[in-house]
């Protein structure tokens, strides 16, 4: 067993099964493996020195690129819809249209701010966003072994990529599927590209008929990293899957539901990070 998994604070619903999956993946070889991960609070820190770290949306919302009036409206949306997102008594079918409504409204507000593309790097640099401890080892190791890292995020792809870029680990094997800004010729935000990506539709099946999907058809062994119920379906659509090891990060009381029900093979609490 991997030494880190022997930490008493790490929870495994079936240690023997975890061992079997890992052994099977090692035997199959790195050329059969892909890593599928959420971004906010999974690859990034949930908190540092007792202070919450920002998500991709928070980085932008908290910046001076957003007017105070807009910040108030975004906060009102959060207070309205976030309790719905974390309400375990509601079904995904019930939450889905409300989540789409939330982020559609939020994106419309951001577009009204006429955000400039050339200021995004500065906004990220001035924020408190940071990747998790050990991120460089993870990103570099995957790159050195040519293992694809697919990041599915309901956040803002432009901000997400900048966080990784400034950390010096945006390697060619990293592919990001998120909500991207669409800028006009002068570099001013005019819309968001394509279909809205939210917590309930970010999955590998969405890549069907793309070059990325064809490339991944020969990689039936999946390491999935997430921190919520919505992240558990990110590997849906993987072709002829042989093994999947789901590792979840217990950041706060909100996402203990998915872990306590044993939906992740391995659960890592905040205190062990």
From TrEMBL:
The Enzyme Commission number assigned here is: 3.1.3.5
Report the GO terms under cellular component: cytoplasm
**Gene Ontology biological process:** nucleotide metabolic process
Q: What keywords would UniProt list here?
A: Cytoplasm, Hydrolase, Magnesium, Metal-binding, Nucleotide metabolism, Nucleotide-binding
Report the subcellular localization.
Answer: Cytoplasm
List the Gene Ontology MF annotations in alphabetical order: 5'-nucleotidase activity; magnesium ion binding; nucleotide binding
**Major place of residence:** cytoplasm
* UniProt superkingdom: Eukaryota
The function of this protein is: Specifically hydrolyzes 7-methylguanosine monophosphate (m(7)GMP) to 7-methylguanosine and inorganic phosphate. The specific activity for m(7)GMP may protect cells against undesired salvage of m(7)GMP and its incorporation into nucleic acids. Also has weak activity for CMP. UMP and purine nucleotides are poor substrates.
Could you describe the subunit structure of this protein? Monomer.
The text of the family note is:
Belongs to the pyrimidine 5'-nucleotidase family.
Against PANTHER family, the record matches this protein to: 5'-NUCLEOTIDASE, 7-METHYLGUANOSINE PHOSPHATE-SPECIFIC 5'-NUCLEOTIDASE
Q: What is this protein called?
A: 5'-nucleotidase
Say which species the protein is native to: Sander lucioperca
